[in-house]
Amino acid sequence: MVPSGSKIKLLALPAISRQVPFDCPNQSCACLHCFCDRRCLAVSRARDPPKGSGSSVFVPDENSFVKRFGPLQRPWAMDNSFLLNLEERVTVAVNTGNVAELVGSNEQTILPEWIELQKKAGSLQTGRITENELASQSREFLHLLRDGLSRGGDEVSNSAYGPAKQMLADVSRSRALQGFSPSETATFVFSLKQPIFNVLNRNTTLSPAQAAELTWSVTLLLDELGLYTLEVFQKSREEVIVRQQREIAELSTPVVKLWDGILALPLIGTLDSQRTQVVMENLLQTVVETEAEIAIIDITGVPTVDTLTAQHLLKTVAAARLMGADCIISGIRPQIAQTMVHLGVELNVISKATLADALALALERTGRAVTRLKKATPASGQNKMSAEKGQ
Question: Rounded to whole angstroms, how far apart are CA atoms 269 and 263?
């Protein structure tokens, strides 16, 4: 422990580290050492060291220190809290460096074990991904994770983890489109824990305390990456659902051309603001393209008509009238008629009970009529044939 109120001195040199004379009587400076960009860092607590001593330490340049541990305080005199915080961060840097080295040197052991765990979890059972694709994704992520550990420590927010996170985002999006479940997608990251833990346990150079500390660091790191994978997967699934809803809404509001100048818009399901907007766009676009005079809006498939639904219908009718097309509403059932009367809803538009009645009215308005053709009787047909033979 550093006594309260004591000061430390940071010795900073140019980019190439060199030995600096510094007095350290009886090893009382309590130096902290770590490797930062292959330069040795020494932070010493000095108590007015006597001049003329020949002791020496290795120190890096200031830019390397700032890049690794953040900006320095000015002047370079820092109290006990800074030293304790620095000691903790130095320990983390050493730990993550060890993990990166272990992952790199034991890749041939980790990768097959990780792939086998994913197979046991059912990643290949659905047939959505091949074994070669799974092996390729696992190998690529292991390389990117090793690079992130060596350059970014255990901070997932560090830019060194950018490639690894981008790769996880791509995997999550592709699996969301392929129909994977959230647990199947998260297993890609979480199943990596056991192979790395096994490597740490088999390493005889680590003390139990070091192994436990490294295990905890790896656990936190992979948990954060796994949660990031799930977040991207969830967003991708939501985007898929929204797109499917939009496509279904467009398919559920088709505009059909019944005759020259006559359109039909059959509605099925509940009308809300978003769907009404789609209905309007489809109807108006078709009116312009076909130069229709009459549009029949059939609500046979609408379960109920309340005040809000009536407002949506009136908006659609008003928009069509602005485009020069008159509207007829068909498919009003007795139950819907009673509900509308009870609620005091007035559509202020011509309505018919069935689509056939609405079509007949539309044909009449456009100067057309539907007539039944008289079929020839079998007797008259035989007489006609006999007459032709006699001639």
Answer: 20
pTM above 0.90, yes or no: no
Contact between 86 and 33 under an 8 Å Cβ cutoff? The reply is no
Model confidence pLDDT, tens digit, residues 319-370: 999 988 999 999 988 888 888 888 887 778 888 889 999 999 999 988 888 7
Backbone angles phi, psi at 210, to 5 degrees: -65, -40
Quickly name the fold that domain 256-365 has.
Transcription Regulator spoIIAA (3.30.750)
Q: What share of the chain is helix, strand, coil (3-state, %, to 5)?
A: 55, 10, 30
Q: Which long-range contacts does 57-61 make (Cβ < 8 Å, 24+ apart)?
A: 57/11, 57/19, 57/20, 57/22, 57/24, 57/31, 58/17, 58/18, 58/19, 59/10, 59/11, 59/12, 59/13, 59/17, 59/20, 60/12, 60/13, 60/15, 60/17, 60/36, 61/12, 61/13, 61/14, 61/15
95-248 to CATH, choices 1.10.490.130, 3.10.20.810, 3.40.50.1370, 3.90.1150.10: 1.10.490.130
